[in-house]
Amino acid sequence: MRVLILMVIVISFLNANSYSQGQPEQILGGRSFGLGGITTTLSDEFSAFNNPASLANIDKFSTGISVKNLFTIGGLNAGGLSFQIPTKFATFGISATSFGFGDFNQTSISGGIGKTLSESFNIGAKVKYNRATFGPFYDPRASIGVDLGLGYQLFPKLEVGIYFLNITGFGFNNSLSTSDFPFIGRAGIFYALSDKVNTYLEFENSVRYNANMKLGIEYLAHPIITLRGGYNTNPNAFSFGIQVIPSRIFNVHLANNVHSSLGHSPSLSFSYQKD
């Protein structure tokens, strides 16, 4: 009975488009969670997953781990791990995510690269392996997909990011079709209002779902404390978060997403950057 209830909730959750166009693993990290799901213009310890073009801005080895509980339901969790590895040629990224519980589980493993083509233009690409299981009566399904990211600095305080998910791919083992992992396009703008306030605007659309607009803001309240807030139009949801920097190499992120119908989804992330 418990599994049946959770399955109903998951299906309702996906149909409600309550988390990144029905694909919970498409956003990773407490900073993004606190900003309402902003990804395209963030360069941080989760860039390997959120937008490979942002990898080009990473010049030190970094890693992040993130966990999120959906709607405060025990056992209904999402999590992931990300590595950013800079080299003289480009910055490489490796990430892995998991969503679900028990027999219902969706995992993704990816490798990507981000490179600076000019002083203000970055490009990145990612190849990912997706696998989904649906219980003992169904065979696992899997697919390989490709994502593409772009980043451009228009002015010192204004940046634009674009991220195309699932631009191509193929399935195997009773293949996951394009309807399982539909094309998603994101375009965002970052503007630094001041040395302490950053603002974000992002549009997201998919071949399956209605468009979603995301708004985010972060405020440097103290040299080691950053406050964040965000809003989504589809679904109607608010987010807030806090980042604490106990040392130069270690960050802690707390965030919470508040869905208008399904309630709270708290998250916790840890990140490390080589000094």
Structure description:
With 275 residues, the chain is mainly beta. The chain has a single domain, classed as monomeric porin ompg (Porin, Beta Barrel), CATH 2.40.160.40. It contains 3 helices and 14 strands. It has helices at 2-15, 30-34, 47-50, and strands at 62-69, 77-86, 91-101, 104-116, 121-134, 141-155, 158-172, 184-192, 197-206, 212-222, 225-232, 237-247, 250-259, 263-273. The chain has a 14-stranded antiparallel beta barrel with strand order 1-2-3-4-5-6-7-8-9-10-11-12-13-14. A hairpin with a 2-residue loop joins strand 12 (237-247) and strand 13 (250-259). The protein starts with a helix and ends with a strand.
Major sheet: arrangement of strands:
1-2-3-4-5-6-7-8-9-10-11-12-13-14
Rounded mean pLDDT score: 85
Radius of gyration: 18 Å
Structural class: mainly beta
Order of helices and strands: HHHEEEEEEEEEEEEEE
Fill in the CATH topology. Porin
How far apart lie the N and C ends? Answer: 50 Å
